[in-house]
Every structure is written in structure tokens, then in C-alpha cells.
Design a protein that fits this description.
4% of the residues lie in helices and 45% in strands. By secondary structure, it is mostly beta strands. A hairpin with a 5-residue loop joins strand 7 (71-73) and strand 8 (79-81). The N and C termini lie close together (8 Å). The relative contact order is 0.24. It binds FE2/S2 (inorganic) cluster.
């Protein structure tokens, strides 16, 4: 069963930026604002466990991992550049006025 978890307010996730949020179980996730649309994925790169929220570079909908320059499409978690081959887990994001929730 899923539930919606409040992770912050919309203005905490500025356009073009990656931010970190923490789920109730202590798991960190990466939250992205792509031209005003919010997306959320697992925080750790599937290649070598770099933190994408702390070190990732967001360009459009692509986040680049700084460790080995692998890339992912943050809208669906799919890897888009080597050496990353395993998709990031994604979380459905819901907005309620200015509040941002993820389904988990
Ligand atoms: S740890 Fe992210 S590309 Fe290697």
C-alpha cells in the first residue's frame, strides 16, 4: 500500500536545481525541478552510489553523476549515458497547492 509523504514546499525546489529530501524510513531521495515540473528519484546513482542530490548536475531533464559522468533521465529514471545501465527508482510526485508530496 502506498501513501503520500510531504517532502516540502514548492519554493524549496527551485527550477533547474536538485534537492535532497528524506522519506519517513530515513531513505534519501533526489528531487528535481525541470522547468517547473517536480520529479523524484532514488538519491544514489546506480553505478557507484554517488549522491545525486548532493553532487548531481541537472541540465534540462538529465542529471549527470559527477563521479563517472553517467546520466539519467529524471522523468523516468532511465539511464541515458554510460557507465550507468540500471534505472533509478522513481517516485510519483503530487502537488497540493504549494505542498509537494511523493508517493511511497
Ligand atoms: S557513481 Fe555515478 S556514474 Fe559512477
Amino acid at each position: 500500500m502506498t501513501k503520500d509523504v510531504l517532502i516540502g514546499r514548492l519554493d524549496e525546489f527551485p527550477p533547474g536545481e536538485v534537492r535532497q529530501a528524506t522519506l519517513p524510513d530515513g531513505t534519501n531521495i533526489a528531487v528535481y525541478n525541470v522547468d517547473g515540473a517536480i520529479y523524484a528519484t532514488a538519491d544514489l546513482c546506480t553505478h557507484g552510489e554517488a549522491s545525486l542530490s548532493e553532487e548531481g548536475i541537472l541540465t534540462g531533464k538529465i542529471v549527470e553523476c559527477p563521479w563517472h559522468f553517467g546520466t539519467f533521465d529524471v522523468t523516468n529514471g532511465q539511464p541515458t549515458g554510460m557507465p550507468c545501465t540500471v534505472a533509478l527508482k522513481t517516485f510519483r510526485v503530487k502537488l497540493s497547492e504549494e505542498d509537494v508530496y511523493v508517493e511511497c
